[in-house]
């Protein structure tokens, strides 16, 4: 039996799948059942919902974690095919932070000797992200490095300057890949490539897959990438029973690696389709509005009125628009709507918007949470203290230590007020970042005797550690255990410190193979990585459960926040802004040309770019509307924050006529 449960968000697809899993487990056991889910959060959620005492082995994976597990288990079969044959017992798996850092180093090295990347308005770290994205997208779309190179150069067309830059980018990607293979260090792209090239072509491995799994369950088929679909197709054809779920309204996934169009083309003819029409979490009228917007844009039909658009806010000045938006939000709050059931979505959130909304709403006793405000490790006091104390204990590194980070660390560790911590910070900088003696400064009375005792302890502690040759991860652990843990850290503080310790362990394991970085300098380079803004510098955001706040977000952050399943009301701001229409293509990366759909046209021009911008915007709006239940407010101003006239197409589409709209007087 091969079944696909197809339906919108909240129609019970995952519940159907979970029930089928429990049924299989109760009769056949779960040892022979493979479950593939969309992400790590879904994996944890799935495990929570099954009775572990009655189940057998839980083979619940994301595609990425399954591939990593299989490569670890069958590594000798893979390594014998690599240059040099058997050299390692196990491969080293590289996390995204370390791969980003290494790629950044290759880009920086290139820029030292050439000026090819100078015309690109991106930092080395940003260029590195695009190169990693190229490798990852190629792997997810079953493309070789040779095919990746071919498509990138076709994309450049006759632009000679772009061809030169892309050739340089291709050379860096090849150097990075060679480093990974030679040192048996696997990033995401190499893992997927090796799995597809060496295991999924191995007859003995395929037979073992048949023997191991008799049942296949796949949640969110529309989110799966082509390389995952390759595995799923093999299992579907060889398992006794297969059950999959598919959301026909999630068109957004094709802009983030998933390929719903290919999934439907490949799997629907092979399976029985069971339609689930009713949704328990999303509004039917919201989805109808989303469908109507699509028809307006691509089929030249009028926007049909269904009453989901509650009001249109129009102002000449942007400040007035923001104030009128707040007034409408306050009306909803006074009617009893919970703050966290209201989401304000804008294509770009600038400081003026954030400050204005926070100011007006805070004056009425409400708070706003900005999902786009990324939290960096250097901004969290405890993880910042880890780095600051590390630099104080290693003066030979000659690393840059900022005044504010030292002052904040002294305030935290010594529990000093800002004035006293600033006074001490001045003296420490005068003393070349060595903690001076308080008696010589005659500071004991200034900072207090209790604080002086803490300072003396910190001074002696740092002197002792400067004489010891400690691995950085061990030093971090000592700092946390002996200096920070007595300060009652919050869950966020503990998470940030744990992330630091885990990251440095993985970082050193990989980077010690990088010849340009001496082993004794690995610790300093790790701190540089955090301060220079590579991906490791950010921590996962946790939605605050204890406080209800009005959500402020861009479309992307709203859609991919794991903590927001639905809201009652949406406010779309700046609907005539061109920022809604951002291109998916960057200077060195274009996911469209790496997709299977590209083969049908084999070209890239302005018309294609504009068409994809429209498709991505409509997919975003459809997905956002699928998370709303009660209504939508539209807000716009004739002039943007710079005083320029706005002329975005979204405004025109939404003005096509909804009978539920009530304009401002």
Automatic annotation (TrEMBL):
Which species does this protein come from? Iocasia fonsfrigidae
Residues that coordinate or bind ATP: 7-14
Domain UvrD-like helicase ATP-binding, chain residue ranges per copy: 1-283
ATP-binding among keywords: yes
Q: Would you indicate the residue range of the signal peptide? A: none
Q: What is this protein called?
A: UvrD-like helicase ATP-binding domain-containing protein
**Is-annotated flag, keyword Iron-sulfur?**
no
The protein's UniProt keywords, in alphabetical order, are:
ATP-binding, Helicase, Hydrolase, Nucleotide-binding
Gene3D superfamilies, alphabetized: 1.10.10.160, P-loop containing nucleotide triphosphate hydrolases (3.40.50.300)
Any one Pfam family here would be UvrD-helicase
Alphabetized InterPro entries for the sequence: DExx_box_DNA_helicase_dom_sf, P-loop_NTPase, UvrD-like_ATP-bd
Q: State any single GO MF term.
A: helicase activity
